[in-house]
Specification:
about 190 residues, mainly beta, Immunoglobulin-like
Length: about 190
């Protein structure tokens, strides 16, 4: 993952993507608008993303953001955030976020560390990573990033997502609604 992307300024951005095949007249077009955030300042981390899978990027395998913000049972759940080290002596190397269930109950701590433990000289910004090892109950959840990495001026928005159940959906009877059922024939 690359952030920030050179030449793309913070603010509203529209991306047009056209995919073509080597078969004539087969293509797909997608247009998406989104807000490109300002990069974090030293000692801050944002944006944060839910990640439930990995993808190959060139020679590397990297965590990829979830596009649907839904986690199925058995999927590895993690959170990634882009942050900049504070540069102060004795700055923390690890942090703690937390998961809060919407239905109530005890929050689940999420340990957060830098993906690259020893950054290159002058490379003070990088990705932070937190993996959830506990099995989460189905329902809506909110990930609250570490407070010590929030901007002094603006709170970092939590990441809301849903954990779906692996139980099959309740079966419905295979009967037609009353208005569609055949009417009994009347005796003659």
């Amino acid at each position: 993952m690359l952030f920030p992307v050179e030449g793309v300024r913070p603010g509203d951005t529209t991306v047009d993507l056209t995919v073509t095949a080597d078969v004539e007249e087969v293509s797909a077009k997608v247009r998406r608008s989104f807000e490109v955030p300002k990069p974090p300042k030293p000692g801050e981390a944002h944006p944060w993303f839910l990640s439930d899978h990995q993808v190959r990027f060139g020679e590397s395998v990297v965590l990829a953001p979830s596009l649907d913000e839904v986690v199925s049972p058995g999927e590895a759940i993690s959170f990634i955030g882009y942050g900049c080290r504070s540069g102060k002596a004795g700055a923390a190397a690890s942090f703690s976020g937390r998961l809060v269930p919407f239905s109530g109950g005890a929050p689940v701590p999420v340990p957060i560390t830098w993906l690259d433990e020893s950054p290159k000289a002058g490379d003070s910004c990088s990705w932070l990573y937190g993996r959830v090892d506990a099995a989460l109950a189905p329902g809506l959840w909110s990930f609250e990033p570490p407070k010590e990495l929030a901007s002094a001026k603006k709170a970092v928005a939590p990441v809301e997502f849903s954990v779906v159940s692996d139980a099959p959906a309740p079966s419905t009877p295979a009967t037609l609604p009353a208005e569609l059922q055949p009417k009994p024939s009347s005796p003659r």
